[in-house]
Design goal:
121 residues; alpha+beta; two-stranded antiparallel sheet; 2 strands
Length: 121
C-alpha cells in the first residue's frame, strides 16, 4: 500500500514540514506576540482620564450624530502621533466620542491593516 506524501508548510514558498497536527512549520507557525493593551497605553489612566471624560462630553456620536457614543477615538491626531509629539495622549481635548459603526469606518480609513492594507504586490 502506498504511503502518503509528506505535507509541506502552508505558508507560500516554505519548503519545511509542518509541526504534527498543524498546518505550519515551527518557523512560520510561531505565535506572534503582541503587547498587552496596558503595555500599549490603554490602562487605567486611559480608561479614567481619557475614555470616561470623552464619552461624558460626547454622549452622541460626533460623526453620524444619531447613535450613542461607545468609543473614545483619538482625533485629530492618533495616539501614536500625540506620543511622538510629546503631548499628553490621555488629555480628553484630543478625543471624540464615536458609535461602533463610525469608529470601525474611521479606523479602517485612517489605519488600514489586514485585508484593507492595499495590494500586496
Amino acid at each position: 500500500m502506498p504511503t502518503r506524501a509528506p505535507r509541506r508548510c502552508t505558508t507560500a514558498g516554505c519548503p519545511r514540514n509542518p509541526v504534527p497536527g498543524r498546518s505550519k512549520c515551527t518557523t512560520c507557525g510561531a505565535p506572534r506576540t503582541r503587547p498587552s493593551s496596558t503595555a500599549q497605553g490603554y490602562g487605567q489612566e486611559h480608561e479614567h482620564r481619557f475614555r470616561a471624560r470623552v464619552l461624558a462630553r460626547d454622549p452622541v456620536c460626533v460623526v453620524c450624530e444619531s447613535a450613542p457614543s461607545e468609543h473614545a477615538d483619538h482625533w485629530p491626531r492618533s495616539k501614536r502621533e500625540l506620543r511622538a509629539a510629546g503631548l499628553d495622549e490621555h488629555n480628553p481635548m484630543y478625543g471624540r466620542g464615536l458609535c461602533h459603526g463610525c469608529h470601525s469606518a474611521e479606523t479602517a480609513r485612517h489605519q488600514p491593516g489586514g485585508w484593507n492594507a492595499g495590494p500586496a504586490y
